[in-house]
Specification:
210 residues; 7 helices; Ribosomal Protein L4, Chain: A; six-stranded mixed sheet; alpha/beta
């Protein structure tokens, strides 16, 4: 898949980059994507939800009435779940929601998500940007020139760039990541994938090494 490299004004530079078919041109595996997204979202949950059982709520432990002879059912004490203020039965307890997904499945999911973006023509390659200082206004201008200012965008960089990250972090709908931290959920959650020129070339190098 060959794409034009654009400058910060959204104009073609005359250079192109070849994105490898092994990463951007496979038949997507929807089940692998499902597992990867499920794992990611499950890992985001704290799992600290908890209710109080009858042994933990406040209240007298005195038996309300004798066991037999009243004509009514046995009730125990006021902490019985049938009473207001009593304990809760079968309520949630703290536990983790993360699941195990094999590395090969996660890699397949990531490649499948990238292939979906390629099929939808939702990938833009931008020449490497150098910012001397954080400037959100300058970054929003670049987004506007690229025509992605009103879309959810994921910027993929070869390595962490402090000035660029500080410029984009306050822009609504824009997320930045380095190529080593890119994940399936972020790819699918974005409407447009913006690759820096160096990041796009790294994909090609990874395909050759594989």
């Amino acid at each position: 898949m060959q794409l034009d490299i654009l400058n910060s004004k959204g104009q073609k530079t005359g250079r192109t980059v070849e994105l490898p078919e092994e990463i951007f041109g496979i038949e997507p595996n929807d089940h692998a994507i499902y597992l990867a997204v499920k794992q990611y979202q499950g890992a985001q949950r704290q799992g600290t939800h908890k209710v109080k059982t009858r042994t933990e709520v406040k209240g007298s432990s005195k038996k309300l009435h004798k066991q037999k002879g009243t004509g009514g059912s046995r009730k125990g004490n006021l902490r019985n779940p049938i009473f207001k203020g009593g304990g809760t039965i079968f309520g949630p307890k703290p536990h983790g929601y993360d699941i195990k997904v094999n590395r090969k499945v996660k890699d397949l999911a990531k490649i499948s998500a990238l292939s979906y973006k390629a099929k939808d023509n939702a990938i833009v390659v931008l020449e490497d940007i150098k910012m001397d200082a954080p400037k959100t206004k300058s970054f929003t201008g670049i987004l506007k020139d690229l025509g992605v200012d009103n879309k959810k965008s994921l910027f993929v960089l070869p390595e962490y760039n402090d000035n660029l990250y500080l410029s984009l972090r306050n822009v609504q709908g824009v997320t930045g990541t380095v190529i080593s931290d890119i994940n399936t959920y972020d790819i699918l959650n974005a409407s447009v994938l913006v690759l820096s020129e160096s990041a796009a070339k790294l994909f090609t190098e990874e395909a050759i090494e594989a």
